[in-house]
Amino acid sequence: MYNMRMNLSVVILAAGRGKRMRSSIPKVLHEILGRPMLQYSIDAVKALRPEKLVVVVGNSSETVSKRINDKNVTFVLQKRLLGTGNALSVARNSLKGPGKDTVLALNGDCPLITSATLKTLLKKHRRDGNVLSFLSFIDDSLSGYGRVIRNDNGDVTGIVEDKHATSEEKSIFRELNGGVYIMEPEALDWLGRIRKNSSSGEYYLTDIVNIISKKRGKVGAYQCAPEEIRGINSREELHEITMLLNRGNVFKLMKKGVTFIKPDSSFVHSSVSVGKDTVVYPNTFIEGRTAIGKNCIIFPGTRIYQSILGDGVTVKDNTLIEESRIRSGSVIGPFAHIRPGSIIGRNVKIGNFVEVKNTRVGDGSKASHLTYLGDAEIGRDVNIGAGTITCNYDGVDKCKTVIESGAFIGSDSQLVAPVKIGKRAYVAAGSTITKDVPEGNLSISRAKQKNLKKWVARKQSGVKKKN
């Protein structure tokens, strides 16, 4: 019986050009629900706790490594794109203790693969004492996948690439190669025997199955769900897989008690959490590590990114919330913009066309419409009138406005920072405040009003004489 080794290394093949994407961006960096597709493969294999994780990249190696930015991943450059067989040979020299580890090899453009499936494959590989194992599937609607060849006893004897398979082979051999392999060191030793394909000029990793079979090494193919190993080679396939992953994220939340009015029109990242009895309306985007509490209502046209919402928060139509915190019971929108660094207290009202940036708003305060609050500290139960502006930028520095609890800011006021409005102080409508307002004071900063008697009649009389 073959002596199974427990050490595992992983190689992700991500050097393909992705010509059908029609893009200057490396194929594996195209994003799916906020993450590059390569990241999905990396996350799936990390659950296996490999000794070494190597990603083989092409000419855009620096771009890929910078975007992934993971110190636990080793990036290896395949200088000449000579196929998957050559890519694994290039990676082998970077593996920890070459010749000792079992190696898992998979593609970087298959974001639907799960850790559970990979663990099952590894378990069956070790149980059966195989030299090489791989995932296969049956789906007559798909093309472009290699055909698994079996003999009369059902043993795997080889894989023939789809473009080289005859019509007869395609009709007989319906089992397709999923492109996920587990190999023992003996299998890797035979990489050098793979010959360049005469028509494509590439070294096919699939050919190693034929070589091992001829050497009477034990090969196993284990079927899995077709959708798990679907690759991405075009924008259409990118869209299809995005929708599959998104549907999974949405349905997972629905099972936990969240209502989606129209699930297919809401886009939800896998890192999002939502409390029960929250209702999410159509055309909404919930992204990044966003956490939404219980009994919230997210109305249409809303985008929430990397933010925390407490229980009972209402976000009205066409509102954008970024990297901020909204505490329980607050109402945001419609048409509001909560910019990064903002903390909105409990039972706060941020209304129509209000922009809040890097500002803390205390419990019970309200800015109901047409207001800009930037770099401000606002206390409890403050009323911000329509058209108020915190003038926070002097052309060089961002300056702070402080409005203490119970203050009242009249409509169309400008607060020129740095400035402080004391507790229960009032600012009269139409004022431009450049100096601190002490506690309990009323501040008025206006030109004196003049009423010119009979001005309209004189003006109209002058117009008639000209005519």
Short descriptors:
single chain, 467 residues, alpha/beta, 16-stranded parallel β-sheet, nine-stranded parallel β-sheet, 9 helices, 29% strand, elongated, disordered N terminus
Can you put this structure into words, describing what you see?
There is one protein chain. Helices cover about 20% and strands about 30% of the residues. The chain has nine helices and 39 strands. The strands form six sheets. It has a 16-stranded parallel beta sheet that branches. The chain has a nine-stranded parallel beta sheet with strand order 14-17-20-23-26-28-30-33-36, with no helix packed on it. Strands 5-4-1-6-10-7-11 form a seven-stranded mixed beta sheet, with helices on both faces. It is elongated and about 110 Å long. The protein starts with 7 loop residues before the first strand and ends with a helix.
What is the strand and helix layout of this fold?
Layout: E1 8-14, E2 31-32, E3 35-36, H1 37-46, E4 52-57, H2 61-68, E5 74-77, H3 84-92, E6 102-107, H4 115-128, E7 132-138, E8 147-150, E9 156-160, H5 167-172, E10 175-183, H6 185-189, H7 207-214, E11 219-223, H8 235-255, E12 259-260, E13 266-268, E14 273-274, E15 279-280, E16 284-287, E17 291-292, E18 297-298, E19 303-305, E20 308-309, E21 314-315, E22 320-322, E23 325-326, E24 331-332, E25 337-338, E26 343-344, E27 349-357, E28 360-361, E29 366-374, E30 376-378, E31 383-384, E32 389-391, E33 401-403, E34 408-409, E35 414-416, E36 419-421, E37 426-427, E38 432-433, E39 442-443, H9 455-466
Parallel strand pairs: 1-4, 1-6, 4-5, 7-11, 12-15, 13-16, 14-17, 15-18, 16-19, 17-20, 18-21, 19-22, 20-23, 21-24, 22-25, 23-26, 24-27, 25-27, 26-28, 27-29, 28-30, 29-31, 30-33, 31-34, 32-35, 33-36, 34-37, 35-38, 37-39
Antiparallel strand pairs: 2-3, 6-10, 7-10, 8-9
